Amino acid sequence: MSDSTVSTPLLSIRDLDVRYPGRTFRSPEAHVIKNVSLDLHAGETVGLVGESGSGKTTLGRAILGLAPVSGGTIHMGSRDISRLGRKERRSIANSIQVVFQNPYSSLNPSMTIEDILAEPLLASGQKAGREMVRSLLDQVHLPADAGARTAREFSGGQRQRIAIARALALSPSVLICDEPTSALDLSTQAKVLDLLVEIQEEKGIAYLFITHDLAVVRAVSHRIAVMLNGEIVEVGDAEQVSDRPAHPYTQKLQMSAPVADPVEQKARRERRREFARSERATSL
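Above: the chain's sequence. Below: its structure in C-alpha cell form.
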C-alpha cells in the first residue's frame, strides 16, 4: 500500500469497547469488543476476518451506531461519531453506508427497485428521479428496466447488486460490507467481488469487509485484521496475513480455508491435525 498508509484516515477507531448488560440481574455483562484500534483510508479495503462470535459484526454495528460504545472512540474524519443520537446519525448517512449479508431479507419484496433505490435519497431530502435510479443500476451492471420490477423477481446475486446500488445512492466515502457474499454460490461470489473492486477503483470508496472466509477477504483486501474473542490479534498487509500469518489463530484460519489443489488441500489437512495435537498438548 502506498499513500493510504500515511494519509489521514477516513475512519479511525481507538481503544473501542462494547459491553452488553447481562440478561438477568445476576448475569455478568458480555464484553464483546475489547480495546480495538483500527484505521481505514480512502480507496482502501480492510478485511475483518474471524469465526462466528469473534466480534467482527458487532464492530461493524458499533461503527454504524447500532451497538453501544462503552469505551474508546470512533472518528469519521475529525468528527467523533461514537455516541451520536438518531438525528445526528442521519446527518452522516451520506458518508457511511452498509451492505448486509442476506440479499433476500435486506430488500423489501413488495417495493419496486426504483422505490428501493430512491428511498435513501428521499430520506435525506434529495431528489430521486429516474435518471438517478438508472445511473445506480448502470453502476452495478443491471438493465435500466430493472427499476420497474420487484426484488422477488431477481436472483440472489442480482439482489446483492441492488443492495450495493442502494448503498451507493448517497455517494458514501465508507461502505461497511457485512458478509456480503456468504449467501451466494461461488461463481456469483466472484462476480460480486469483482463489482466491488471495480466500484472502488472508479470512486475511491473505502470498504470495511467483514467475513469469516480468509480466502474471500484475501481477494479484495489491501490489509487484513483478524479478530478473536473481541480483540484484534493480527493486522497487516493482505498477502502477508493470508500467506504467512504470524498468530496461531490466523494460521488455524488459513489451514481451514479450502484450496483447489488436492495435494495442497491434503497438506493443509495434515497441518490442521498437527495443530490440533499441539493445542491439546499445550492445554494439558
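The CA atoms of residues 18 and 68 lie 6 Å apart.
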